[in-house]
């Protein structure tokens, strides 16, 4: 998540697991989040035995056909993918 400041993402604007809107944001991220940051391996492959406690956001969006209609990949590093919402 080290790229967040470079991309202009403030931690105070992040929806965390403890956030009241976390479950709703997983269901409809485009209504809640300008940015979505996921672990590459979970987003691309889903959860398995090796990462069962992994990224809940990446797991929720794995194979979500509508996600990429609302977001575009703008940055990636070895571990994480950073998507920004495409406003229509």
Explained architecture:
- The longest helix is centred in the first third of the chain and has 6 residues, at 22-27.
- The chain is an alpha+beta fold and 88 residues long.
- Strands 1-3-2 form a three-stranded antiparallel beta sheet.
- It has helices spanning 4-7, 22-27, 29-32, 40-45, 56-61, 67-70, and strands spanning 35-39, 71-76, 80-85.
Topology:
Layout: H1 4-7, H2 22-27, H3 29-32, E1 35-39, H4 40-45, H5 56-61, H6 67-70, E2 71-76, E3 80-85
Antiparallel strand pairs: 1-3, 2-3
How many DSSP-defined strands? Answer: 3
Q: Give the SSE string.
A: HHHEHHHEE
Q: Biggest β-sheet, characterized? A: 3 strands, antiparallel
Strand order of the largest sheet: 1-3-2
What is the terminal separation in angstroms? 27 Å
- Please, what is the average pLDDT? 85
**Low-confidence segments, ≥5 residues, pLDDT <50?**
none
Helix content: 25-40%
Number of helices: 6
Radius of gyration: 12 Å
**Shape assignment:** globular
Percent of residues in β-strands: 15-25%
Main structural class: alpha+beta
């Amino acid at each position: 998540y080290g790229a967040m400041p470079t991309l202009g993402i403030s931690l105070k604007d992040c929806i965390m697991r403890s956030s009241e809107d976390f479950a709703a944001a997983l269901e409809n991220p485009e209504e809640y989040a300008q940015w979505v940051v996921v672990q590459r391996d979970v987003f691309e492959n889903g959860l398995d035995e090796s990462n069962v406690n992994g990224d809940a956001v990446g797991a929720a969006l794995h194979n979500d056909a509508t996600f990429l209609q609302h977001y575009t990949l703008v940055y990636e590093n070895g571990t994480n993918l950073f998507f920004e919402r495409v406003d229509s």
